[in-house]
Structure to design on (497 residues):
């Protein structure tokens, strides 16, 4: 794909700005009008889509197309910014304000495509969306690049769709909806999709949406190797429990309670903390018990080091620890005699400062467990 | 205390900002939000410190609170005193400039005077 740079008016300038920089935004979303999709849909689904169009929709919540089981109680106020783009012009204006030179376009309602029950409807939704996107957005606005949607319900149909549309250079990737997926994308079931993508020269992009349905994303029993199971079973158990404890304010309700997490390594800690902080900015009113950023509470927790991360550059562990105050919150753990135990020499040998090494190897545990050593 | 010299800028007439409303005004080089909360005027920047969104274009409401200070009961507080940034939803208590979510963040607040039906902001 070729993207023209903006006129280099500031070439002489020493300092790069948003205006002079070429910016590619790899994830923007267009809003589907079901009545418009009906114009491209196979019968009898066109009739159904016109019926869906009669229903008043809420944000990413449209009965028949992308219904949410929404039980959260609304309160007055909150963000009221328009959160959909319904035309190429509207999108262009929005992106120009962001100084974006090109953007990859994903859907709104079809983010929930994997949860559509009827495979035939899902397939026609994908194909009608792609044609609608091509004609009404991609041909209208050159800076928009399409993500070609496939229905995971029918990989053969998805492969055919890729071959049908993939020749249009306006499409730059295959979008594989993740939320509510019944079979994870590692399964051979999807090989036809990957083969078609390779054949047409398109990468695939897996994109999720806010949904837990019905067990997604926890169908880890489908993993076939210990590598996969062991890599995620431990940290995901920690992730789920920590998020739950933050959500219900355990460290606020019991500030004196020491809390530690064991045998999950630590690289997930800054990840979760950062995710929660980002959510908190927008959704603080859902957790008014919290008086500070979630990461401030996460930093009160303690973490066993095992299984310590072993990146190619050992110094990356030091950088990782800096992201969650590991110098003061990590406690060496070996898991001896289990198969994946960490020898203390490894942790000791990491390029921590002498002071940090002391804390991690012992002082933090002494404090946390209130040990009295001779 | 800032040593920057201040000026009183006429930003609106009282008729333009009835009770329970707010609007974005310009005071010199500053773009501010001017709020009329139960007959009292307040001015804060029209700039969210999060990602520089147009804070004062946001909706005004109360907000939810919970904890020992509410007797451990979910409470709706600060009715008509909280503005929510339209970009990412960060909330601010207008009279104090306090960020509801992030106690370390506090907005500047500006003195507002009314003379002869005109509203002046000292900025």
């Amino acid at each position: 794909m070729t993207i023209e740079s903006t006129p280099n008016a500031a070439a002489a300038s020493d300092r790069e700005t948003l205006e002079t920089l070429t910016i590619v935004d790899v994830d923007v979303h267009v809003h589907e009008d079901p009545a418009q999709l009906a114009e491209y849909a196979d019968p009898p689904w066109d009739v159904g889509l016109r019926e869906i169009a009669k229903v008043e929709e809420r944000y990413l919540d449209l009965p028949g197309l992308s219904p949410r089981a929404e039980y959260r109680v609304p309160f007055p106020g909150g963000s009221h910014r328009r959160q959909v783009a319904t035309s190429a012009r509207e999108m262009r204006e929005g992106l120009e304000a962001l100084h974006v030179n090109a953007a990859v376009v994903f859907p709104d309602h079809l983010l929930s495509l994997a949860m559509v029950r009827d495979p035939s409807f899902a397939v026609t939704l994908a194909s009608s969306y792609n044609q609608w996107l091509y004609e009404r957005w991609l041909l209208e606005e050159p800076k928009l690049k399409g993500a070609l949607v496939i229905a995971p319900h029918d990989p053969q149909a998805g492969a055919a769709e890729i071959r049908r549309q993939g020749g249009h250079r306006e499409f730059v990737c295959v979008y594989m909806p993740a939320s509510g997926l019944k079979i994870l994308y590692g399964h051979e079931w999807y090989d036809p999709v990957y083969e078609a993508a390779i054949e047409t020269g398109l990468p695939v992009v897996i994109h999720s949406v806010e949904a837990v349905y019905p067990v997604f994303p926890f169908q880890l029993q489908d993993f076939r190797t210990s590598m996969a199971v062991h890599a995620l079973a431990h940290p995901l158990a920690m992730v789920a429990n920590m998020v739950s404890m933050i959500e219900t304010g355990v460290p606020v309700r019991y500030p004196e309670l020491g809390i530690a997490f064991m045998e999950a390594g630590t690289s997930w800690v800054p990840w979760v903390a950062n995710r929660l902080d980002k959510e908190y900015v927008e959704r603080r009113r859902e957790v008014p018990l919290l008086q500070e950023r979630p990461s401030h509470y996460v930093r009160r927790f303690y973490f066993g080091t095992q299984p310590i991360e072993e990146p190619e550059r050992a110094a990356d562990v030091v950088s990782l620890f800096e992201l969650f105050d590991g110098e003061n919150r990590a406690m060496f753990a070996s898991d001896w005699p289990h198969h994946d135990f960490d020898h203390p020499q490894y942790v000791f040998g990491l390029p921590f400062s002498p002071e940090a090494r002391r804390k991690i190897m012992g002082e933090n545990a002494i404090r946390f467990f209130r040990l009295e050593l001779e | 205390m800032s040593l920057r010299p201040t000026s009183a800028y006429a930003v609106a007439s009282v008729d333009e900002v009835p009770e329970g409303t707010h609007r974005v005004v310009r005071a010199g080089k500053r773009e501010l939000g001017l709020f009329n909360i139960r007959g009292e005027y307040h001015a804060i920047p029209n700039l969210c410190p999060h990602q520089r969104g147009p804070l004062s274009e946001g909706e005004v409401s109360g907000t939810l609170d919970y904890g020992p200070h509410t007797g451990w009961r979910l409470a709706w507080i600060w009715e008509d005193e909280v503005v929510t940034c339209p970009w990412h939803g960060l909330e601010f208590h207008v009279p104090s400039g306090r960020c509801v979510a992030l106690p370390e963040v506090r907005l500047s607040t500006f003195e507002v005077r009314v003379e002869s039906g005109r509203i002046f902001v000292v900025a």
